[in-house]
Design goal:
The complex is a heterodimer of chains A (525) and B (347).
Chain A lengths: L12 E5 L3 H4 L1 H12 L3 E5 L12 E3 L6 H14 L5 H7 E2 L1 H8 L4 H8 L3 H13 L3 E5 L1 H4 L4 H14 L9 E4 L6 H6 L6 E2 L3 E2 L3 H11 L11 H9 L5 E5 L3 H4 L3 H10 L2 E6 L11 E4 L8 E4 L4 E5 L12 H11 L9 H11 L8 H6 L2 E2 L23 E2 L18 E6 L15 H6 L4 E5 H7 L6 E5 L4 E9 L6 E5 L27 E7 L1
Parallel strand pairs in A: 1-2, 1-5, 2-3, 4-15, 5-6, 9-10, 10-11, 16-20, 17-19
Antiparallel strand pairs in A: 7-8, 12-13, 13-14, 16-21, 17-20, 18-19, 18-21
Chain B lengths: L1 E4 L2 E4 L6 H7 L23 E4 L6 E2 L10 E3 L3 H16 L15 H8 L16 E2 L5 E4 L8 H9 L6 E3 L6 E3 L16 H5 L5 E3 L11 E6 L8 E7 L2 E7 L11 H5 L14 E4 L2 E4 L2 H19 L4 E4 L6 H14 L5 E2 L5
Parallel strand pairs in B: 1-5, 16-17
Antiparallel strand pairs in B: 1-2, 3-4, 3-5, 6-7, 7-10, 8-9, 11-12, 12-13, 14-15
The chains are: A alpha/beta (525), B alpha+beta (347).
Chain lengths: 525, 347
């Protein structure tokens, strides 16, 4: 998030797109509802009439895969009505003319045809966003999990820049991150091109710094992303795969393919807290301590670094992940020992400028939002305050492009996927909670009443879904919150697993798979 | 604003409530219905104070300080009024402190102790018993409810769910779900934010383990589910988490969701991995750390020698700590010599 969670309270307009906030980020949703109650306006864009839509001033029920067209349409109306922030554009951005030119073609009528949204609603939403002094955009995987995901994020950024909403309190561009420490895992260099703090592996001065500190020779070659790793395994380039705290057998698209890859790899190590679907395929399984059994830090969606504290003992011989990794490094000849995660943090701090002022001592008394360059710095509530980080905000106009897989006679429905309130990701933890299983016991597919009627399907029927990659059996949930021709499945469940159906086609820039659009067929089982 | 409290002069900002003013100078005023996040309701009336020249007593939570105000927070008249209120409350409250889960963390219990109330002196019919245990995570016992309204207001003003409200009037008032259909059939999302603020034992988590509040210790930590990073206090008895309370002095402002508040039992689930396992003849068998790590490191050496550094790939974890993630990429980059490190940021 460019901005902070508490700032939502003072936003004039809250624009939620591709985020089922009340189910995936319930506490942020509660704060949004508080803001709405205090007078903020709300726009919600989603293929399903999610709970937040009930609070919206305008709800745009768009077809999955049409985010860019909608965002361009909003910008078209804003410019036509003169609601853009001319001063901001002049002083803080560049490439505005190109954007203006591109969005010219996205009239509400044309956008309405692409997105399936009433042109009147597009105009109303544009007015609400454009007229707000401080408007924040909040999005999640509904924006990013498309082959055009990166361009959709750029379009969000275009909209925010157009109305002067970047570098402003209670506004901004705010991806709500899904996992407790997905921000931190990225910050710490859990990416193939990035050392901690997004310092690039191919920059000689960066490599020198890390080589000096670690006393080893490092590769300057950008590594493989998950998708590329899987391909490299199939081509026998990668022989040894080590998976820590992840369950791709449930979370990744095209499960049959994932299973083939994990079966094929020469040696697989899985480190986890339970014997997950992925762990059960491993050659070696290592028992890890869970969050309440170890010390450390998580970095949340608003860049806030916070302590995790050991409260109970890990079961049996399970050990903290960092300890296991240190033991392996020691056995492999790197003698460095760390007595406590605080020592690891000290090393991180010495190498990562954005974490430069972090210490366990400070974290005892406060939480810190990065960038926090030195020990006297209070941390950063919102980014780009004095100026956009790169100098000027760059408009990156993007055209609407159809999803990789479009419907046809054989697969006439669009399947989109997501999470629900009562489970978390692959259910490794929540699947073992009695109460949650009572409230959300099994997989299901949401089908519009009309679609169901055409197919002779009734609520509660067992149905079979087919895509080009596989088939699953699940329960039909007939509802009017989703449009005719679109169906939704939660991806958590390993029985009736949505990801058997999903498409592994990826966005070429971010390498994110198109989990939000797959073409399927449904039959009564 | 110059205000005199219990004979001493203080200066407060305009708009400060008398209750807030008292808390700023370290005076403990009893209250069962106050919550700084909510619009003051003045419903429990325990915080009433005497203000010179104002006639009757006034609730401190709904009264703002004024220039020259002279306040008495613990005069005989105030104490007597609070004792009468507590007497009325306890007269309609089952004295089950011996078995009540809330004992030791119950504000009614604490105030009765402080104000010397040993039993209720009003003898009349008690409120209609009503017990709702249809929610998987918490129970509602209407007999213990003191109608402070905190649960209803939190559900409405903060959580925005409006699953519960007040039903009936006067002595028959009860906290209820619409049409008496019970929590199970209400719009309740089991966030437990009502349970977290209940000052008595009316709303209680369904705990797997019996515990007394004085047997527990508390550890502040970060929730391990989504990226909001709510701060929470784990209550621990022995080696087990028995309850979770949200942190009120953090960005989540005393709120949690169903997963953060109630879903921690996986930690002590019997399926937890307790020993390393190595595949032998196609089957995973338990072993010790030495053997497991030997198998891994000898394979690492073999692969590195035969196929080079880029034959390794690793998926680090958005679920693990920063320190865990740093170590993982350091193992791959520094020890194994490859940048083939990624994780499920895209999923």
């Amino acid at each position: 998030m460019t901005n902070s969670i508490q700032e939502i309270k003072n936003a004039d307009t809250i624009f939620i797109i591709g985020s089922n906030t009340s189910e995936n980020h319930p506490v942020i949703a509660a704060i949004m509802k508080q803001a709405k109650r205090a007078g903020a306006k709300m726009i919600v864009a989603d293929p399903r009439r999610i709970e937040m839509a009930e609070y919206a001033d305008v709800f745009l029920q768009l077809k999955p895969g049409t985010n860019i067209a909608l965002l361009n349409g909003l910008m078209h109306v804003i410019i036509e009505k003169g609601l853009q922030d001319e001063n901001y554009i002049k002083e803080r951005t560049e490439n505005y003319e190109e954007l203006k030119e591109l969005v010219k073609g996205y009239t509400p009528e044309r956008v309405s045809e692409i997105c399936g949204v009433d042109p009147e609603y597009i105009i109303k939403a544009a007015e609400i966003y454009g007229e707000a002094p401080k408007a924040g955009i909040y999005y999640t995987m509904g924006i990013t999990q498309h082959t055009t995901g990166t361009h959709a994020v750029m379009s969000i950024s275009n909209l925010a820049l157009l109305c002067g909403n970047v570098g402003v309190e209670s506004a901004g561009v705010n991806p709500l991150r899904g996992q407790n420490n997905v921000q931190g895992a990225c910050d710490m260099g859990g990416l193939p091109a990035d050392l901690p703090g997004y310092q690039k592996v191919f920059k000689p001065e960066v490599l020198d710094k890390f080589q000096d500190s670690w006393g080893s020779k490092l590769s300057n070659k950008v590594g493989l992303t998950i998708t590329e790793m899987f391909k490299a395994i199939e081509e026998d380039q990668v022989k040894f795969l080590y998976i820590m705290g992840e369950n791709p057998m449930v979370s990744d698209p095209d499960t049959n393919h994932v299973e083939h890859v994990l079966d094929h790899v020469d040696f697989l190590v899985v480190q986890d807290i339970f014997l997950t679907e992925t762990a059960s395929m491993a050659d070696v399984v290592l028992p890890a301590a869970a969050f309440a059994e170890k010390d450390g830090t998580f970095t949340n969606t608003e860049r806030r670094i916070q302590r995790v504290r050991r409260a109970v003992e890990a079961p049996g011989e399970a050990k903290a992940d960092w300890m296991i990794l240190m033991d392996i490094m020691n056995r492999m000849g790197d003698e460095t020992r760390y007595s406590h995660p605080a020592r690891i943090m000290a090393e991180i701090v010495s190498l990562t400028p954005s974490y430069g002022g972090v210490s366990y001592k400070r974290l005892e008394k406060e939480s810190l939002q990065w960038p926090v360059p030195n020990e006297n710095h209070p941390g950063t509530k919102y980014l780009h305050k004095a100026a956009i980080a790169r100098g000027r905000g760059l408009f990156m106009p993007a055209e609407h492009v159809a999803s990789a897989e479009i419907t046809n006679d054989e697969y006439p429905l669009i399947l989109t996927t997501g999470r629900i309130l009562y489970h978390y990701h692959t259910m490794t933890m929540t699947g073992r909670e009695e109460g949650l299983n009572k409230l959300a016991p099994h997989s299901y597919v949401e089908i519009n009443e009309t679609t169901a009627n055409k197919l002779g399907i009734e609520d509660g029927d067992m149905v079979k879904l087919y895509s080009r990659r596989g088939e699953v059996q699940t329960t039909a949930l007939v509802t009017d919150i989703i449009d005719d021709g679109v169906v939704f499945m939660p991806f958590h469940y390993s029985e009736g697993k949505a990801n058997i159906l999903t498409n592994s086609a990826i966005d070429e820039i971010a390498k994110i798979p198109e989990l939000k659009v797959a073409a399927v067929r449904i039959e009564k089982a | 604003m110059q205000v005199t409290i219990n004979g001493k002069q203080y200066d407060f900002d305009k708009g400060t409530t008398v209750l807030k003013a008292c808390s700023e100078i370290g005076l403990d005023i009893p209250t069962l219905c106050n919550d700084e996040r909510l619009v003051p309701s003045g419903s429990c009336r325990l915080c009433q104070v005497e203000i010179e020249g104002w006639g009757k007593l006034h609730t401190a939570c709904t009264t703002q300080v004024r220039e020259g105000m002279v306040i008495h927070t613990h005069s005989d008249r105030v104490i007597k009024a609070r004792q009468d209120l507590l007497d009325m409350l306890i007269s309609n409250h089952p004295l089950e402190c011996l078995t009540c889960e809330k004992s030791g963390a119950c504000k009614l219990q604490d105030y009765c102790y402080e104000y010397g109330i040993t039993e209720g002196t009003y003898r009349w019919e008690m409120s209609k018993p009503y017990f709702d245990d249809t929610n998987p995570f918490y129970t509602f016992d209407a007999r213990k409810c003191i109608l402070c309204g905190l649960c209803v207001r939190v559900c409405d003003e903060l959580q925005g769910t409006n699953a519960i409200g007040f039903e009936n009037r006067g002595f028959d008032t009860q906290v209820a779900t619409p049409f008496g259909e019970g929590l199970e059939n209400s719009t309740c999302v089991s966030c437990g934010n009502c349970v977290s603020v209940c000052p008595v034992g009316a709303l209680e988590p369904k705990s797997k383990k019996k515990f007394r509040h004085w047997e527990t210790r508390t550890v502040r930590t970060t929730c391990s589910y989504c990226g909001v990073g709510c701060q929470m206090d784990l209550k621990i008895k022995g080696n087990e988490i028995v309850e979770v309370q949200p942190a009120f002095d953090a960005h989540n402002e005393g709120l949690l969701c169903v997963k953060g508040k109630f879903s921690y039992n996986f930690l002590s689930h019997p399926d937890r991995l307790k020993k390393p396992m190595v595949r032998k003849d196609g089957v995973l068998v338990e072993t010790g750390w030495d053997e497991a790590l030997d198998v891994i490191t000898s394979k690492m050496k073999e692969v590195k020698k035969e196929f080079g550094s880029d034959a390794f790939a690793g998926l680090t974890s958005a679920r693990c700590t920063n320190e865990d993630n740093y170590m993982f990429q350091k193992l791959f980059r520094s020890t194994l010599g490859t940048n083939n490190v990624d994780h499920c940021a895209r999923l």
